[in-house]
Design brief:
One of its GO terms (cellular component) is nucleus. Keywords: Metal-binding, Zinc, Zinc-finger. It holds the Pfam family zf-AD. The chain is mainly alpha-helical. Helix content is 43%, strand content 7%. It has a two-stranded antiparallel ribbon. Strands 2-3 form a two-stranded antiparallel sheet. It is rod-shaped and about 100 Å long. The protein starts with 5 loop residues before the first helix and ends in a 29-residue tail after the last helix.
Length: 141
């Protein structure tokens, strides 16, 4: 924003409530269409930035095209961040479910059953014909 005298600008009937530009085309209280999507710029400012514009002087709240574009970009960015946050929370929820399953008694008991197996295996326990072309033990002289 340039060094402008706000009082001078406010004497004008039409100025942007976001940047004080005198090139305003849209009333923020109206609903507009962006493609097939409805937009109300007053509500968007409130929902995205928690800015509640006060209009004590009875003038219309106007917004310029540049600020509309910035507001639309901010809304799109907010939606992306919210979707990513939701995806992270869902993934974290699934991690917690997986961790809970692994920490239940049933799965732990099943894992402990492996200790009962005899893991002393010798070469005579294998039928080498199943593993080599000529039935000889490869790698053993």
């Amino acid at each position: 924003m340039e060094n402008l005298n706000i009082n001078e600008i406010m004497k004008e009937k039409h100025f942007c409530r976001c940047c004080l530009s005198e090139e305003c085309y849209k009333d923020m209280s109206n609903t507009y269409y962006n493609g097939n999507k409805k937009e109300n710029y007053y509500e968007m400012l409130l929902n995205i930035f928690n800015i509640n514009l006060k209009n004590n002087d009875g003038q219309r709240c106007l917004i310029c095209e540049e600020c509309v574009s910035k507001l639309q970009s901010a809304a799109a960015f907010k939606n992306i961040v919210l979707k990513v946050q939701e995806a992270i929370e869902k993934a974290h929820c699934w991690e917690n479910i997986d961790a809970n399953i692994l920490n239940t008694g049933t799965e732990k008991e099943d894992a402990d059953d492996f200790d009962d197996f005899n893991d002393d295996i010798s070469d005579k326990d294998f039928n080498w014909e199943n593993f080599t072309q000529n039935g000889s033990q490869k790698g053993i002289n």
